[in-house]
Amino acid sequence: MIQYVSNKGGGSPVDFETAILDGFACDGGLYVPTRLPTITHTQLRQWKNLAYVDLAFEILSLFIDRACMTEAELRELLQTAYAPFEKEAIIPIHQLKCRKNLFIMELFHGPTLSFKDVGLAFLVNLVDFFLKRRKEYRTLIVATTGDTGPATAYFTAGKSNLSAWVLYPKGMVTEAQERQMTTLPHSNIHPVGVSNCPDGGDDLDLVIAQLYANKSFKDKVQLSSVNSINWGRILMQTVHYFYGYLKTVDTIGEHVDMAVPSGGFGNLCAGGFARKMGLPVHTFVIANNTNASLHRIFSEGVFSKNAIFETPSSAIDILIPYNFWRYLYFCVAGDAHKIKEWSAAFLSKGSVRFDATTYQEYTKGFLSASISDAATLQLIQEIYASDGYLLDPHGAVALAAADAVKEALGDRKMICLVTAHPAKFPDVITRALHTDSLPEEGRHHSIEKAKNKCEKVYLCSHDHLEEALLDIMNADWDIAHTIKD
After folding, report:
1. Do 273 and 443 touch, CB atoms closer than 8 A?
2. Is residue 348 scored above 60 in pLDDT?
3. Are 357 and 389 in contact (CB under 8 A)?
């Protein structure tokens, strides 16, 4: 049985259910499995033609003990989780005409039109499953730079065992993304628009960490999170790497490359784990925008926090890629002392330079690029003109990064992960295409419908956010549970 431990070494090993419901480990670290299972080419051949949900069942079963969840329960949960997706394939694959051997993996066909639906459809329903069995309640709190919030709110809405507090930096997400959170009428959904966030979503992450450190508050409201700090998100995201590979290759064992738009390293962490489990990915291209937090780590060996830039690819405007620590744990043979030491040094100094041996180990199989705003917009226009295919700005960053490093890659098939529907970024699309009106490919009925709905939202300044949240979340808990009692 696989157990879960903190990547900082504190506490005792826990089971899968505990790791999911806790979110953070007891020492503030991130839960990691005690081992990663090995997936053979024989298994990959057996899985070659599986539908997405069936493939997910096979991979998740390697991590979830049957004493924790039966085969029937896992299958039913997966069917329920992915029923709202628009495409039967869940994740369609599209081949571009204007690039040789380039495939687009469309991860945006969930109800909130981003790849966060893929992980959160499973995770929120999983948390709800465990809570119903325990007859318990959890208060979810997440910070979002545009996509995690809407997905968390959608899948939590109406669930009797959960409520969600969704924090977002006001003015740093698009109106479409904001309305996906603020137009939900459900009483258990609480969007919080936060002004004065100089570091964007990273400022909100720090406040959430402080709330977690407040033990009496955490215990009272049963605080938990489904941000990418939760192991369930990373686990579920490994599945789409296997799925994209199996749907693209002609022969099992063939190596491919994958380009991934990334800010927090959650999606790429899952990809790295998939490769460590046996997926034949030769190179992951880390696609950063001008914030370049990951590009500095992988090109210079420096984990540092610089001033934030607001870019067209706003969902990856992230300065601190927390999930890199989770991946690094497996690159230093599970040496939790090193992870704790580096994390502490970063918190105190704002920068860590890794030694040559560590740098060589974690960069194996990765290339990175930082893409300018101008290059992002230019590529959206180019691909639409040549292929009639409309990329969102994050997909454009991924494709531009693949172009930037193509001479180092060779002729392998390239799979670009496109993580959001362009309808979520209308101003970026019209600017890129030099037009006043969105093309049909840049619209979606759910976004248009939300424009006519009433909004409900808490507004707060970051200067006193922690105090304000303690006050309102305590009050909401007392009211809700007085009514229930």
Report:
1. no
2. yes
3. no
Cα(472)–Cα(127) distance, integer angstroms: 24
Tens of pLDDT, residue by residue over 70-119, are: 999 999 999 999 999 999 999 999 999 999 999 999 999 999 999 999 99
Q: Output the six-digit token pair for 356.
A: 């040559």
Q: Which two tokens stand for residue 114?
A: 């981003």
Nearest Cα residue to 297 out of 273, 315, 323: 323
In the 8-state DSSP scheme, what is residue 160? T
| pLDDT beyond 70 at 485 | no
E strands of 7-127, at which residues? 31-33, 93-95, 102-106
CA distance linking residue 450 with residue 47, whole number of Å: 39
CA-to-CA dists, residue 161 to 129, 142, 158, 258, 391, angstroms: 9, 17, 9, 38, 37
What's the CA angle centered on 299, arms 298 and 302, to 5 degrees?
A: 70
How is residue 199 annotated by DSSP?
T
Catalytic residue among 8, 116, 247, 413: 116
Domain ranges of the chain: 93-113+231-441
List all residues 6 or more positions away from 230 whose beta carbon is below 8 Å from its beta carbon: 20, 23, 123
DSSP letters along 326-368, please? HHHHHHTTT-HHHHHHHHHHHHHHSEEE--HHHHHHHTTTEEE
Length of the chain: 485
Provide the CATH topology of domain 93-113+231-441: Rossmann fold (3.40.50)
CA distance 224 to 54: 29
Based on the residue annotation, tell me whether 424 is a catalytic residue of this protein: no
Per-residue pLDDT tens digits for 152-184? 999 999 999 999 999 999 999 999 999 999 999
Is the separation of the CB atoms in 219 and 22 below 8 Å?
no
Report percent pLDDT > 90 for the chain: 92
For residue 147, give both structure tokens.
Answer: 């996509």
Separate counts of helices (H) and strands (E) for the chain: 20, 15
Mark out the alpha helices in 65-222 (DSSP H runs).
Answer: 71-82, 116-134, 148-156, 175-182, 201-213, 215-221
Q: What integer is the mean pLDDT of 313-333?
A: 95
| pLDDT tier for residue 225 given thresholds of 50, 70 and 90 | confident
Give the DSSP letter string of 260-328: EE-SSSHHHHHHHHHHHHT--EEEEEEEE-TT-HHHHHHHHSEEE-------SSGGG--S--THHHHHH
**Which pTM does this prediction carry?**
0.95
Q: What's the pLDDT at 281?
A: 98
Alpha-carbon distance 249 to 172, whole Å?
Answer: 39
Tens digits of residue pLDDT in 375-396: 999 999 999 999 999 999 999 9
Model pLDDT, residue 484: 57
